[in-house]
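Can you make up a polypeptide sequence alongside its tokenized fold?
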Amino acid sequence: MLTSRRRFLLGGLAASAICAPALPALAKLFTVNRRPAETFTLANGLRVVVLPSQRAPIVTQVLVYKVGSADETFGRTGVAHFLEHMMFKGTDRIAAGDFSRIVSRNGGRDNAYTTFDSTGYHQTVAPDRLEMVMRMEADRMTGLRIAEKDLISERQVVLEERRSRTDNVPSALLDEATREQLFGRHKPYAMPVIGYVDDIKKLNITELTNFYRRFYVPGNAVLIVAGDTTPDAVHKLADKHYGQIPSRKVEARRRPTQGGADLPQRVSRADARVVEPRWSRDWLAPSYRVGETKYAHALQILARLFGGSETSRLWRAMVTDNKLALSAGAGYSPASLGLTSFDIGVHPAPNRTVAEIEAGVALEMKKLVDGGVTAEEVERAQNQLLAAAIYAQDSLASGPRLYGAVLSTGGTMADIDAWPERIAAVTPSDVVAAAQLVWRDSGAVTSLLTPAEGSR
């Protein structure tokens, strides 16, 4: 499984919060208690995080490698995602395809994902099966065997995934074109996570093996274990299975600090498969790590109050009041090793023009920048984000993934613990300053997806 641009994985706490329910304004902000967590590092450099929870008799192991598609180079794209597939093809101890079958036979489930900055493998099992999945995951950290027959068959799987999720989805194709303009052609975040078709077709065993040996090392990984277990138990098992893996040098990762040249740009796609048009605008934005990082928390509040729900400013103006759109929203995810983006998307109402949509969005942006935001708006957005953080603590899916996203992009446990306080400290003036920083034509790409002429 891969994850691309829109806001369904990469943003840590903020990504899960975008879908939080709208809540009434309260007289005080929610309190997010620190989640019980212990962390330690094995002698070979593997970072381990334990998140004990006895809410259910299950445990989840997530092993996140600090490598993703943005660590590739143009002409050699798709390696990280292809390798994720090949990690299920077996070792000297486990036959090709048996990893998932063994997990399933033991009543568990497993999967994997690739993003721009990380690759993760996860299993959820009964507590007495934790050692089993640790042993198997540690085995494929060093023992992966890539056979030509498996490479050939899996190439077709990846190409079909590319066809079904990108080439046959007009919005995904437009998204690729938008990223190329926003981040710069041939640059890390401009290239698709799954890779380009021509690159996928020519990937070979040598390239995959070199990538595997370069990045799949203990010191370049974070192990998160959550659920019905204890730190002592995890420490013993991690030492036993992962601790025996020799350490190897970890290379520093680099990301561009500049976006695409010659912004602003406009990108459009007319496609016979499109039924209804879509309009969006993306801006280069700072992340937790690159750019004006002090605005990252205010930008999360901005995305929420401006376009994060059906009670947001943009939705009320474009959908409820003026009937210009069928939906409207905003998104921002700061958990990136490099620059990220802030986006606004609108699904126009029938018979509404692009000019009307752009004028309506521009008016609401101007109202916010010129007139500011109220303390009540900010408080409501803060509580929605804080509520999402509380919900995430109960989840054995989003909770560990959140830790993996932050820790694999240069963040620390202290950053995770401090996030509620930093969100609570955002002021109305901070939100306006963040909007003024990001909402600049010099950092924007406007995208339009329309039906092909004569296709309706």
